[in-house]
Design goal:
The chain contains 14 helices and seven strands. With about 290 residues, the chain is α/β, with parallel strands linked by helices. The termini are far apart.
Length: about 290
């Protein structure tokens, strides 16, 4: 099957390679990487109608500008797939805009990271079921066995991926907190070894634990070369916002997101307020800024 892949970064580039290995004909466009096409218009002309375009670009302005340019070039019957981490509300809007021009739009959540080339990608597709069925050979080639599902109408693919990433925040934070307790203990523990044995037979075994074991092997058990500064890419915030709208308590995901915020503070103003208040009402000693350094 033919496909136009737009964006050849860590995910898109490996996805194009996996599809080519499976026998699909992949045309590519990325202004920063060697591609088969120099422009989106040229990419369109390299594909036979009805065309299938797959956007694998960062969520936000780049996705929006790419979608709008692509929509102007596409013909009725073509399909546009957004495989990035877009907000599902944006995907619903884009679906409506595409439908006005007779173009199908699929929002496909993709999980797999840099390991997807060999292990495959978990795919969660939302949008027109007919369009998803037409592209199922592509989805099946990208996913490992049982790793693909059509999950529902427009927006549902990115909604499911959003919640997936919110869960990911909580799982990562639980491992992080547990290993800090181990690291601070009175025992001289080999964290690399512990992460290793927990991968076999343990209730907490998982792929994330496999990756942590690999990180300890690469960076050392104390992770001395890594700064504890953790970014977030939006999905955790969106998950919490939707949970609030649904009156669903998500304390673990919320705490995990706030822990990421805390990791970016060199000095907490809230902690300063707490220290000042304890001094005011109880005469508790405070440390000066000079003492802290």
């Amino acid at each position: 099957m033919q496909l136009g892949m737009i964006g050849l970064g860590r995910m898109g580039g490996n996805m194009a390679k996996r599809l080519a290995r499976a026998g699909h004909e992949v045309k590519t466009y990325d202004p920063g990487v060697e591609s088969t096409a120099a422009t989106l218009a040229e990419l369109r002309d390299q594909l036979d109608a009805p065309r299938a375009f797959w956007m694998m670009v960062p969520a936000g302005r780049i996705t929006e500008s790419t979608f709008q340019e692509l929509l102007a070039l596409a013909a009725p019957g073509d399909t546009i797939v957004d495989g990035g981490n877009s907000n599902f509300r944006d995907s619903q809007r884009r679906h409506a805009e595409a439908a006005e021009r007779g173009v199908a739009f699929l929002d496909v959540g993709v999980s797999g990271g840099v390991w997807g080339l060999e292990a495959g990608y978990c795919l969660m597709a939302g949008g027109e079921q007919d369009a998803a069925s037409r592209l199922e050979p592509v989805f099946r080639a990208l996913a490992p066995e049982d790793g693909y599902a059509y999950v529902g109408p427009s927006g549902s693919g990115h909604f499911v991926k959003m919640v997936h990433n919110g869960i990911e925040y909580g799982l990562m934070q639980a491992y992080a907190e547990g290993f800090e307790v181990l690291e601070k203990s009175e025992f001289d523990l080999d964290l690399h070894e512990i992460a290793g044995i927990w991968r076999y037979g343990s209730v907490v075994r998982s792929w994330l634990l496999d990756l942590l074991h690999a990180a300890f092997a690469q960076e050392g058990g104390k992770l001395e070369q890594i700064k504890g500064y953790v970014e977030d890419s939006g999905e955790g915030r969106w998950t919490i916002a939707e949970a609030i709208a649904e009156d669903v308590p998500v304390p673990v995901i919320t705490a995990a997101l706030f822990a990421r915020f805390s990791s970016r503070q060199d000095e907490s103003f809230a902690a300063k307020v707490n220290a000042a208040l304890r001094n005011q009402f109880g005469g508790h000693a405070v440390r000066s800024a000079e003492e802290a350094t």
